[in-house]
Here is the input.
Amino acid sequence: MTSNEEIVREAYRLAEGDVLDGPGFRALFTEDGTFNDMPNSLTVRGDRIPQALTALASAFPDIHRELLEVHPIGDVVAVELRIQGTHLGGFPTPAGEIPPTGRRIDVPTADLWYLRDGKIEAFNCYNAANVWFAQLGAGPDFESAIETARAAAASV
Here is the structure.
């Protein structure tokens, strides 16, 4: 029998830029399994899961996840890692696509994998989105946020 840790390690292997096997990654999930990008409030379910891998790999074709710590705890596997890669393709955001910058990313991340009967039920990815965007040169626009908040407060 394959352990939960082995299943999670296989998921990471299948998501690497030099392997990128979306259908294989999807096969590790339950039928109704979810991939949850927690900082961006994005949930991908079922057969749309491989699309999330493909979209990320199109922006970072050499994407790699450096696993720092892997802790299986019953049906949960907690992982501390770094998402690394080179920004060579468009990166979608709610405000539009960030064109390729050629910059390297090295983003601290923590993932929680919830398994049931040897399948992934939920994968919650907590990447440091603020670090990710800063490394792409797309830091927060605090000035606009402050102006918007002041205008909203003045209209009340």
